[in-house]
Amino acid sequence: MMPDLSPASDATASAAPAPPPSSKGLAPADDVPLLQHVLKQKARLGSTAAPVGVWAGAAALVFAVGAMCVAALFTALVTRSSAPPAASASATASAPEPPPPSEPAPEASAPPLPKSQLEKARAGDVQAIAEIEKKPAAERSVEESVALMMGNVAAERKELAEMGKALAGKEPDKEQIDRLQKASRDSALAADAIHVMATMAGPTGPDLLYEVWTGTPRRTSATELAEALLSNPKIREKASPALLVALDLRAAETCEDSAKVLPRAEENGDRRSLMLVGKMLRKNGCGDTKREDCYPCLRKGDAIKDALKAVRAKAAPRY
């Protein structure tokens, strides 16, 4: 029901009619009293009468609240239409969780060898060593790598021992000599190689021992062993006359000892004795000041020169 905007009866009776507006229109200052007058006029809505200003304010409030409700409803509808449909609680509860992504299975590596196989490998068993060698070095365990090294050494020691048995009463061939010389330079195999050299028949063994002893300026356990064995009477019995000259010149401690060897050097010596005879020409190197002659007994005659000429002309055996 629209509010009744007709003036109340008591207001109409007491109010005087307003004067007509000027033909030129109202000035802005004259509009304010007129608007205030209109807003103060009472209007009736049903049985309730109130000023027009109250009814206008109420209408504006209702309009504003309605506009806010419409805007909120519109926003909710837009949000709901854009959101994905939510799964029901029961569906969410019953749906199983997806399994986690499976990681790629690691590449299978060969299992480590059992203890018995490792023991065989360390002892030099060829098949056990071959099983370890099949694996890449990065996949071998520490025990396998160590067993492989020990096994290779053990296998080579077995080969050297078998060579020594095969050479009983025989001279070695070129291939066997090369193998022995190579092993003598390996600290893990030197003792085994030297043992074969010392036990083989003929003068080749003592010659090889002499090379081990004098072939390097360094003192090692191998050179010391070879030197000691060359002083053994049984090995000296197999040595050639030329090697015995070199050994005796090295063993001479006095001028007289060297003088006794010089005739043999002239007769049998070879180039292995060249430096040993040549140092006798020096007239110093002895005494507290190292300025005294070490071979004063040989200054008369040409024994040194004759021996030096003979050994220079005779080549040493080459292996």
Descriptive overview:
It is a single chain. The protein has 16 helices and 2 strands. It has helices spanning 9-14, 28-40, 52-82, 89-94, 115-122, 126-134, 142-166, 174-184, 190-199, 204-214, 221-230, 233-238, 241-251, 255-268, 274-278, 303-313, and strands spanning 42-45, 48-51. Helix 7 runs parallel beside helix 9 (190-199), helix 8 (174-184) crosses helix 9 and helix 10 packs across helix 11 (221-230). The protein is mostly helical and 319 residues long. The termini are far apart. Mean pLDDT is 81; it is low at 1-18, 21-29 and 85-93. The chain is elongated, with a radius of gyration of 62 Å. Strand 1 and strand 2 form a beta hairpin. Among the domains are: 113-166; 167-239, no CATH class; 241-319, no CATH class. Strands 1-2 form a two-stranded antiparallel ribbon.
Count of helical stretches: 16
Helix content: 55-70%
SSE string: HHEEHHHHHHHHHHHHHH
Which class best fits the helix and strand makeup?
mainly alpha
Share in β-strands = under 5%
Query: Could you describe the largest sheet, including whether it forms a barrel?
Result: 2 strands, antiparallel
Coarse shape: elongated
Instruction: Give the tally of β-strands.
Output: 2
Please give the radius of gyration in angstroms: 62 Å
Distance between the termini: 137 Å
Low-confidence stretches: 1-18, 21-29, 85-93
The largest beta-sheet arranges its strands as 1-2
Mean pLDDT: 81
